[in-house]
Amino acid sequence: MRLWSETFRDGGLMPADHAFAEIDPASRVRLAGNRNPHLAWDEVPNGTESLALFCIDPDAPQDASLANVEDQALPLTAPRGDFYHWSLLDLPTAMRSIAAGQFSSGITARGKQAPTVSWPDSSGTYALRQGINDYTAWFAGDAGMGGDYYGYDGPCPPWNDERIHHYIFRLYALDVPHLALPERFTGQQAHAALYGHILDEAQLVVAYSLNPELALTLKK
């Protein structure tokens, strides 16, 4: 299976318009376009019943108390874990691309509230399921931003992080039309439900940083 994007090249830099936040020289960061990137795929194997798409940041700090602290760097060696930015399930085999901004454009305070999104084609309209992403936990307890964040919300790595963050867009071909999950599910739950159903997979990796010094190295 083959996966590509017109938004970025594999191993390249995520454009700020597709991130949750971007660098602001005056205030460190500001909210950004938060548009999901364009993605397209082909060479889907025979026997595929549906596809599943994930966006995961494996460089997220496990200790959030170290993030975005004035006069303190988040060390390169700090423990890291997965942060799920997107889980999109039940993609039909007829679907071969996602347009930039199709499922996310702009910041929605307290999160986008649609657990399903529609994809129409000539044979009908399909309901695609979206999991809650990890901004749900990140903003928990925040009066202005707390809520269930369904679907895609883009990169917002800590601005004091010494590590460049990488975002893995991974597409799976599955041998089942639906995964056994509750209506409200996390990216971790969706990823675990893939076990035993994967026929093939493809991925793209893109980098992003809100640390001004690291961001300059990415642009070179």
UniProtKB/TrEMBL annotation:
Superkingdom per UniProt: Bacteria
Pfam families linked to this entry: PBP
Coiled-coil residue windows: none
Official protein name in the record: YbhB/YbcL family Raf kinase inhibitor-like protein
Source organism of this protein record: Janthinobacterium violaceinigrum
